[in-house]
Amino acid sequence: MELSLDPRWLSRYSAQGPVQEAQSPCVFCAIIEREVESHVIAETADTLCFLDHLPATYGHTLVVPKQHCRDLFDISDESFQSVMATAKQVANALHVTCSASGVNLVHASGLAAHQTVFHFHMHVVPRYDGDSIVVFPRLADPARKHEVAQRLRAALLDPLPPTKPAESSAP
Question: What is the pTM of this model?
């Protein structure tokens, strides 16, 4: 089956939707509790999968842990592993049933990354030949690779306890 997709419809939407307020109820928790309607496609003991309400491509699916956690810095290793295992199963299903040529797993943590719902979630975005989506526009300065490599090596050799990320002097 060959799909004819026109990604130009996406231009009708702003790059970032309304941000969920920290004090407001979590829409993903409400979907998990079936208080908000959604197109649920799969469920495990620890995760729920449902179609994105503003899909980037045909079959764009979200995988969320059932236990609320804010972002990558808040999720437990066990919940993260469950989300990733489920995301892989969804990717395989999209490949087989929707003829996806590829897949992007996309996650955003924090306002700077354009996180808009503050419940950890993984986007499973099926990709189709010619869909024209640009995931990484390559804006960083390649001349700074040596500097950042040294910083990361040092941090990974002597890891600190998990905390909120420090303010960065980068971009």
Answer: 0.77
Tens of pLDDT, residue by residue over 12-28, are 334 444 445 455 689 99
Residues 39, 121, 123, 146: which is the catalytic one? 121
For residue 62, how many other CB atoms are within 10 A of its CB? 24
Residue 83 contacts residue 120 (beta carbons within 8 Å): yes
Nearest alpha carbon to residue 15 among 54, 72, 63: 54
In the chain the domains, ranked by start, together with CATH numbers, are 7-139 (3.30.428.10)
In the chain, how long is the greatest CA-to-CA distance? Answer: 51
Q: What is the pLDDT of residues 114-168, one digit of tens each?
A: 999 999 999 999 999 999 888 777 778 888 888 988 988 898 887 666 665 555 5
Q: Is 121 a catalytic residue?
A: yes
